Amino acid sequence: MTRFVATFLLTVLTLTIVQAQITTQSQAQPGWVTITNSDAGVSFQMPSGYQQKDTLSMSLYTKELSNVTMEAHYVNVTGAETLPGEVPSDPLQTFVDAAVLVNNAQLLGRQNVSLNGHAGVEVSLSYTDEEGQAARSYQCYFWFNQKVFAFSATARAEQADQLNTYKASFFGSVVFY
Q: Is 155 in contact with 163 (CB distance < 8 Å)?
């Protein structure tokens, strides 16, 4: 259980450290491209010029556009079934709790979502950092012992309209196959 929570917290921490921007396929923005990760079985859109980093168990895509940072994370958690202890009864709620904790944030909203038959959660947070008030939204899909998909969009509080526009495009473009 402790290693499971640590893995979850590490994923959330990674989301907060590396900033990324991503768009939607259904409402494509000019200059956005479709990214397909066949190992993960996911595609999404994000502005061209994005950065990609791959490790043995994670892929990260990031981009900043108009002061909004978007991130897409895919983590392969295969092998986690060997962890001792109990699996949380609600891994998505564990993600929400970890996101609030790691960001030292106020939870503004939590909504259950579904995509291609997969359950997920969308979370909106408000937090203060060294630059002032900021807002971050996550959309997370989690299959224990298989995959974690986490998408985030972050902006300063005064860019809330831009955040909402890009978040809608980014989160709306995600397709699992």
A: yes
pLDDT in tens, 58-89: 899 999 998 999 999 998 876 554 545 566 67
Residue 72, helix vs strand vs coil: strand
Given a cut of 70, whether residue 174 has pLDDT beyond it is yes
User: Do strands 118-129 and 147-156 pair parallel, antiparallel, or not at all (unpaired)?
Assistant: unpaired
Contact 92, 111 (CB under 8 A): no
CATH, domain range 2-176:
3.40.1000.10
Domain definitions of the chain by residue range? 2-176
Q: What three-state secondary structure class fits 70?
A: strand
Three-class secondary structure of residue 96 per DSSP: helix
Dihedral class, residue 157 (left if φ above 0, else alpha if ψ from -120 to 50, else beta): alpha
Tokens of 107: 């939870």
Nearest-Å Rg of the Cα atoms of the chain is 15
> 82: alpha, beta or left, given left = phi > 0 and alpha = psi -120 to 50?
alpha
